[in-house]
Amino acid sequence: MRAYIGGHQTVSTNDFIELALGTPVELWLGEEGETEEERAARLDAARDILADNPELPDDVARIAAEVIEAHAPELFNVVPLTRPAGRRRPSRKGAAA
Question: Which of 15, 25, 49, 65 makes an SS bond possible with 10, Cβ 3.0 to 4.6 Å?
Answer without folding.
Answer: 15
